[in-house]
Design goal:
This protein has 382 residues and is of the alpha/beta class. It has three domains: 194 residues, Glycerol-3-phosphate (1)-acyltransferase (3-Layer(aba) Sandwich); 60 residues, no CATH class; 79 residues, Pleckstrin-homology domain (PH domain)/Phosphotyrosine-binding domain (PTB) (PH-domain like), CATH 2.30.29.30. The protein is 24% helix and 23% strand. The chain contains eleven helices and 18 strands. The protein has a seven-stranded mixed sheet with strand order 1-7-6-2-5-3-4. It has a seven-stranded antiparallel sheet with strand order 15-14-13-12-18-17-16, with helices on one face. Strands 8-9-10-11 form a four-stranded antiparallel sheet, with no helix packed on it. A hairpin with a 3-residue loop joins β17 and β18. The longest helix has 12 residues. The protein starts with 9 loop residues before the first helix and ends in a 6-residue tail after the last helix.
Length: 382
């Protein structure tokens, strides 16, 4: 792909200065950042992708770019709809996406950024990992990588999950390494299946398993928020069965054991070997589901609104049945829901052919809804 010499506009420089004087120093202060194998990210035009567990991963990347050469990229729409921060993101070249919803206009804008010589960051799993383990890819992203005709660099962030899990309200101090891998080779025109294999391999590590030098030595109340990830008792299957105690311990309602949450988010009982929260989450995801057509699987107090107007949200009760979602008596058949997605760590949106509903969960686990909907209505996002 041919490209022109990129001259960043003033508004991009101003936005970069805002980020470089606030969020980038925040990342450096908390996580002792280190880029292995060089001092800068690869030059554009190119794609950069990687594992994505922490909200600040894009700013970690940009700790290794020069002023005027920040990464452009794609970000979920939740941060780009309104306000001064959204304006700053847009000024540096961030495009909003609804993830798995078809967006041909977004592809055109990405090509325009590449033609301008930009580094374009896309996280191909469509959002932050909840448990630190690889998630399914959005295959259209892999197709874009393979067809664009520019280098595609895997850039791994080692320590992203243990430094700040998605479900946690605050970070943990850690030593985070950024590792640039060689560009993925597509010169032999591989199939999509083979291309996906090559793309996934460099970022396929389990982020809960890291060297001791990466693990945080301490954390403030690390148990807070863990019930968003571990939303069922792994023994009884009860939703909401994991209780957080005093910020440092959790217990399952089906037993008397009290587990201490370590700074790296593993669970430890007395002097036994620590347990991986990702293993417990995987067990939860494989358990049978309760409820049915007449008895709800999930019931949750939530605030629901239509479209993007968060200010118009209304409180009420949201219920999930095996064949429909009920919102204060309004019935939405699962077969009518085409797309869904998570925003932040407490919002779920659903899109039918004619409606776009969003729900904010002041308590409880939004992940429980996303996972369960995906299991009983696998056509969603397909």
């Amino acid at each position: 792909m041919s490209h022109t010499l990129y001259h960043p506009p003033f508004r991009q420089i101003a936005a970069e200065l805002a980020f470089r004087s606030t969020l980038v120093p925040f990342c450096k202060a908390w996580w002792d950042l280190e880029l292995t194998g060089g001092s800068q990210l690869p030059p554009g035009p190119c794609f950069i992708y990687g594992n994505h567990s922490g909200n600040y991963d894009p700013f970690i990347y940009n700790a290794f770019t020069q002023l005027g050469q920040s990464t452009a990229g794609v970000m979920t729409m939740e941060y780009l709809e309104s306000g001064p921060v959204a304006a700053l993101f847009q000024a540096v070249g961030i495009q909003g996406t609804r993830k798995r919803v078809p967006e041909p206009h977004l592809i055109r804008r990405i090509y325009e950024m590449l033609k301008a010589g930009r580094r374009v960051v896309i996280f191909p799993e469509g959002g932050r990992r909840w448990d630190g383990r690889p998630a399914p890819w959005i295959e259209s992203t892999a197709k874009l990588f393979m067809r664009a005709g520019v280098p595609v660099y895997p850039v791994e962030i080692i320590g992203s999950y243990v430094a700040w899990p998605r479900w946690a309200p605050w970070p943990r101090p850690a030593h985070v390494k950024v590792k640039v891998h060689d560009a993925v080779d597509f010169s032999d025109n591989p199939s999509l299946e083979e291309g996906l294999r090559r793309l996934k391999a460099p970022i396929s590590a389990d982020e809960t398993v890291v060297p001791d030098e990466i693990r945080p030595a301490w954390a403030f109340r690390p148990a807070i928020g863990l019930d968003r990830l571990l939303y069922r008792d792994p023994d009884t299957g009860q939703f909401g069965g994991i209780a957080v105690r005093d910020g440092w311990h959790v217990t399952a309602q089906g037993g008397a054991d009290v587990f201490r949450v370590l700074p790296d988010s593993r669970l430890q009982l007395a002097n036994e070997e620590p347990l991986s929260t990702a293993d417990i989450y995987a067990r939860i995801c494989s358990m049978d589901l309760p409820g049915g057509a007449d008895r709800p699987i999930l019931t949750q107090d939530a605030h629901v609104w239509e479209g993007r107007h968060f200010a118009s949200r209304k409180p009420g009760r949201l219920q999930l049945f095996s064949d429909h979602v009920d919102w204060n008596g309004a019935r939405y058949p699962l077969e009518s829901i085409n797309y869904m997605g998570l925003e932040r760590s407490d919002r779920l949106w659903l899109m039918t052919g004619t409606e776009h509903l969003s729900a904010y969960f002041p308590t409880g686990s939004v992940l429980a809804w996303y996972d369960t909907l995906g299991r009983i209505a696998p056509h969603i996002n397909s």
